[in-house]
Amino acid sequence: MESARYLTGQFLLAMPGIGDPRFDHAAIAICAHDENGAIGIGLGAVIPGLGLHTLLGQFAIDPGNAPDAPVHLGGPVEPRRGFVVHSTDWGGQDTIDVAGRWALSGTIDVLRAIAAGSGPSRFVVALGYAGWDGGQLDAELARPGWFNTPGALDLLYDTPAEERWARGFADAGVDTRLLTNGAGTA
């Protein structure tokens, strides 16, 4: 199956020593990956001092009963653009299905629905994204630096941001204490 080599619906975890401080301890939910490129939402760090209520206020949306959930640092590309990774029980005008595992929305309608109590039952909010041109992520995966793991929903929704990286490795049977910063030589 040709799509088997693509990582849509999986997590990408940065290996120690990845060489790019923007991705140190990154846990990225891959939302689209094909021959044209990839997009992922970083869920391994939150933006200090920014919660969902503040974000909703910037759009003049009353938070209603929405929890004041943390806003994640989604990635270095378009850091002011918002995204919501969410359960598949809600869909809006731009919602994309992510391998039947979760959904991704990037327009204000999902924020309005969350505030009104009619949005997705589970969600994670982020600003920015990680993006790769066609073949770029595939080339990076051929070198040490990234580790992919199935996109467990409890890792997505039930694990605090600061624990996602270690938990992703643990779920895959990898003890992060044994990971090194380099490949070494023989």
Automatic annotation (TrEMBL):
InterPro entries for the chain: AlgH-like (IPR003774)
Top-rank taxon, per record? Bacteria
Which HAMAP family does this one have?
UPF0301
Q: Which family does it belong to?
A: Belongs to the UPF0301 (AlgH) family.
Protein name as it appears in the record: UPF0301 protein ACFONA_07990
